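QA checklist item 7 of 12: single-chain prediction sanity check.
[x] sequence parsed
[x] length recorded as 91
[x] structure emitted
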Amino acid sequence: MPPAPAASLQGDDLRRLRWRSRRGLLENDLLVARFLDRHAQHLTPPQVETFQRVLDLSEAELLDLFLCRSELPAGLDTPLAREMLEWMRSA
């Protein structure tokens, strides 16, 4: 049996994720918003969970990640998180 297609974020779920992703630093806000514009409707549930964990980082930690000045923290350093961080950097 083929795997079920991933459910896409829509409606209230997407609005909540966009609201939660608003950042205090303009640079972070722009990168995260562009990432969501490009990818939000195609994110799988594990990707959404990983994205939310990335959002738990402080503004300074997130900016350092975007600017390649630091690596993901040990508890968050997974292949999925690294892939999503690259998507955000390229946004």
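[x] summary fact logged: The first helix runs from residue 11 to 20.
[ ] second reviewer sign-off
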